[in-house]
Amino acid sequence: MSAVGVAPGPVAVVGLGLIGGSLARLLAARDVDVVATDVSPATRAAARRAGLTVADDVAGCVADASLVVLATPLRAMATVAADVAEHAPAAATVTDVGSVKGPVRAEMAAAGLAGRYVGAHPMAGTERSGFDASDAALLDGVRWAVTVDDGTDPGRLATVLALVTGSCAGTAAVLADDVHDEAAALVSHVPHVLATQLLNAVAGAPVRAVALGLAAGSFRDGTRVALTDPARTEAMVSQNAAWVAPALRKVVRDLELVVASLERNGSAHAFFHAADGVRQDGRVPRRDGAGDRQAVERVPLAPGWPAVLVERCTGGAVVVGLTSSDVEVVPAPV
Amino acid sequence: MSAVGVAPGPVAVVGLGLIGGSLARLLAARDVDVVATDVSPATRAAARRAGLTVADDVAGCVADASLVVLATPLRAMATVAADVAEHAPAAATVTDVGSVKGPVRAEMAAAGLAGRYVGAHPMAGTERSGFDASDAALLDGVRWAVTVDDGTDPGRLATVLALVTGSCAGTAAVLADDVHDEAAALVSHVPHVLATQLLNAVAGAPVRAVALGLAAGSFRDGTRVALTDPARTEAMVSQNAAWVAPALRKVVRDLELVVASLERNGSAHAFFHAADGVRQDGRVPRRDGAGDRQAVERVPLAPGWPAVLVERCTGGAVVVGLTSSDVEVVPAPV
Asked: What are the start and end residues of each CATH 3.40.50.720 domain in chain A?
């Protein structure tokens, strides 16, 4: 843990599903003082059996917290945020792990927590859900998005970056909410929609039985995330509808051109080669990691440093660590 | 190998790329008499170093063959088919491993090989290509499509089924070319197009650097097959343009409805649940296999048996073996 660390008091994790459960397990494994809770008594019991410190309600969970991590579904956020506003110390920083950031910040502002909030989104998941599927390894060393706005308190941002790059051994892109939500639409929500569409197309086809029998790697990989709980996928996509809809509109326009080209020429050369630059520079990550730590640069914790990080990270740089005087940044690959 | 087996003489594999090379290696490992060739001297040398029996040209490769497997790109098929027609024994059966079947049958007919031809397509592949990437394990025990028409010789069909279910330890769906090509569009070619589209959308986005930095599992899986040689993907899709174009048209229509729904309601419930039946009956294969051999049924090798197989397999049944008197079939899962 860096010198710019979490204030005294435990980290409170509210919500023990896949992500909240994995985070609580990871922090406990790293000897961070963590107290968790969940709305479900059965989940609380399971978390106690797993060795976690568990409070019976949100009030008890956040009462002494230095940092509150909201890991509940978005639909529960307004209620939980009101509890946090009432029961958490004013010094406690509030963050979350939701897959959209603009809508969460709006909920926080509505609950009077705008000044204490820093957004966060760990880029990890599995097809499974619930505390039983949670695993400290799921969030160990992964990339996070950490989102800010003009009013974000630098000390609270440092608290969240210390958690991500210290206890969680991860890396962080510090971004505006909109940039995160647009990027998440492209690399997560649109992929979930297209995976669902691939599955739907086969499910509705006269040759369905044959097609499923012949399905090999490209179909299995292309539909993997569509096989998860479709209600969860629907919720995730709906929460980011403002960015998913225009991104999908562009997908539809592009595919119309491919179809027209296939119908006219039997080919669509430009389409298949449009991403050759990305293929060639090897920028598609095969798995997450800390980047090239050889190339670490230091951003001093001088006035205005959050805005410097946003500018750097929007260009592709990543925060890999935090000291008492600097943020350690790895530049975007050239 | 079953009693209804390959006639005397080696299996000739023409073309030693990923699939041809893997097939030659697998047959050799199973002590099948196999002779292979490739247009590239370097590939022939590599195949000899790998211990395969290699002929210097197509004529030498097929001269004594009982079964000829064409594993060349479709664009080379006309030339190779002419060589086979000239040099292979009239008794030799001709098959192939191409990802589309209607266009290959047309090439065979043009070369005068219609009466000797049975179509075949192993449902396996990797992102890699070429003999260096070939591996006997790639085709060991996989699902094949085997295609016929009204004129297919039953003995030649039996020869190909014996190869697939015997030496290759695989299973086969016996289908009409069109049914295969439509199903392949849905489970292979359309997935390749959508994977390419996902990559293109990020490559062309202003938030490209951020998006690639945040990309996690859904994007990696959704774009895996788009990272392979785009020229190969383009060729595969183009060859089946007649089926890919209408399937993609339907994808475009469905996605337009999703976009409209997201724009209007912020949700798209029906879309996300359209394939719930497929999810629930667990019909999406996680990997290929022989199916439930407990449920084997026997189709006697009586007059008209190929048509019986086509009917059964079009409903989802799979051929798992062949004896001197019967074809062993596993019915479609209920």
From this structure: 11-176+287-330
- What is the reported pLDDT for A289? 44
Query: B274 and chain A: CB distance < 8 Å anywhere?
Result: yes
The two structure tokens encoding residue A317: 């740089």
> Could you give the ipTM of this predicted complex?
0.87
Q: Is the pLDDT reported for residue B66 higher than 50?
A: yes
Residue whose structure tokens are 């001297």: B41
Interface test with B, best of A214, A257, A271 (most B CBs within 10 A): A214
- What is the pTM (predicted TM-score) of this model? 0.84
Is the pLDDT at B4 greater than 80? The verdict is: no
pLDDT per position as a tens digit, B196-245: 999 999 988 999 989 988 887 788 888 888 887 888 889 889 999 999 99
A215–B contact, CB cutoff 8 A: yes
Q: Which amino acid is at B284?
A: V
Q: According to the CATH classification, is domain A11-176+287-330 in 3.20.20.80?
A: no
Local structure of B328: helix, strand or coil: strand
| Tokens of residue B96, six digits | 């192939």
Best residue of B75, B121, B187 to probe chain A, by most A CBs closer than 10 Å: B187
**Whole-angstrom distance, CA of residue A283 vs CA of residue B106:** 41
Instruction: Determine whether the interchain pair A218/B237 forms a contact, defined as Cβ–Cβ distance below 8 Å.
Output: no
Which pLDDT band, with edges at 50, 70 and 90, does B68 fall under? Answer: very high
A-B contacts at Cβ under 8 angstroms: 337
Q: Which residues contact B99 (CB under 8 A, 6 or more apart)?
A: B121, B184, B188, B189, B236, B239, B240
Chain A contact for B182, CB < 8 A? yes
CB A250 within 8 A of CB B206: no
- Give the DSSP letter string of B191-244: HHHHHHHHHHHHHTSTTHHHHHHH--HHHHHHHGGGSS-HHHHHHHHHHTHHHH
Distance separating the N- and C-terminal Cα atoms of chain A? 30
Architecture label for domain A181-280: Orthogonal Bundle (1.10)
> Tens digit of pLDDT for each residue in B305-324?
999 999 999 999 999 999 99
User: A231: which residues sit within 8 A by CB, 6+ positions away?
Assistant: B272
Q: Which of A145, A221, A258 is opposite residue B248, by nearest beta carbon?
A: A258
- Every domain range in chain B assigned CATH 1.10.3660.10: 181-280
Sort strands A67-70 and A11-14 into parallel, antiparallel or unpaired: parallel
Closest-approach residue (CA) in chain B for A233: B272
A177-184 helix and A241-265 helix, angle to the nearest 10 degrees: 40
Put simply, the answer to whether B217 touches A225 (Cβ < 8 Å) is yes
DSSP letters, A130-166, are SGGG--GGGGTT-EEEEEE-TT--HHHHHHHHHIIII
Task: Give the E-state strand segments of A99-236 in sequence order.
Answer: 119-122, 143-148, 171-176
